[in-house]
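[retry 2/3] WG repeat-containing protein: previous attempt timed out, resubmitting with same input.
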Amino acid sequence: MSEDIQDEIISAQIIDASGKRLIASESPIRKLLYHQLYTYKQAGKYGLLNDQGDVVLKPQFDSYRDEGEQVRFEENGKLIPLERLLD
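[retry 2/3] WG repeat-containing protein: success.
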């Protein structure tokens, strides 16, 4: 999806083949660079999904920074590397 289209999306959903809504996000669901993970947002917090649409990390983070191979999530003013969250 191109960036100009993403900028206009204010929410996103993942729906299974039967039409059941699996995940609703308050912002675009975005793929992290160099990872097979996707960010989503609920109740003002960010979480992570895998490429199957399963929740990897529940929404608990205030923001995130995707700088290619370095991904960090902010929680209570502290930046936590993605690697530490996935252990």
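[retry 2/3] WG repeat-containing protein: The longest strand covers residues 55-61.
[retry 2/3] clearing retry counter.
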